[in-house]
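ok so I'm stuck.
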Amino acid sequence: MAEPTVDDLPAEADALQAIELRIDSIGGAEVREPHRHAYHELIWVRDGHGRHLIDGEPVEFGSGTLTLIAKGQVHQFEQAEGVRGVVVRFDDEWLTGSRRWLFSGGSCTALTVPPDEAPRFDALLDVLRAEIERPSGPESAELRRHLLASVLLWAQRWREAQLEGRGASGPDVELHREFLELLERDFATSHEAGHYAAELGTTTGTLSRLLTKLTGRSTKQLVMDRVILEAVRLLRFSDLSIKEIAARLGFGDQFAFSKAFKRQRGEAPLDFRAHSTYL
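replied:
not stuck anymore, here's the structure
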């Protein structure tokens, strides 16, 4: 099984793209095959509606939505009608500080932008796009970095508002943010909840209660969700053996991996691979 095509940015170290998005209609035979991103992608849909497949899972979008797709995720526009908007693409070089948690590499949902803020956000993206298209000058890199940071800070505000709507305080949101960054770093080597609590300077019980309040999932469940998500990617989009996948994801042997996968997905890894297709 061949791995999906990898889309990448130009070789320049400071590569940043902001491209007008126009899709009149797409679906069926017109759908491009699944592809991985070697960059982070932000998709702003001003008008229109449709559905992404991200790591094989459907993500619906409509007018006034913002979808954040992390580097390494497998993406496909499965369906789109009358879509107008902007796509922004950038590498890790542009993603600093507290914004990294927005691209944790886990499951993906489309953020709904408040209607009264959508025109201003659209204008901000238009300014970013115009600045990228201008010939570079001494101030260009700094201007582009500040504009992208503003875009991501707005996205962070809307994501945090979602969490605060579930009863989270400011410190709760910060701890959740730190957990996601740590999880992305360590999921393939550390599966135990205690590791994450210790790294974050809190107790296992406190961390798990907070995460359960915000996500409905305990620390252990979120760790295994991330591990199995990576397993699903590798089973769907690579020809690595079960033994190789188990080793890559930090399991002692392929039997422990198979047991964990079946507990999470309801079937053995080989059975999943045999019938799994990216439709």
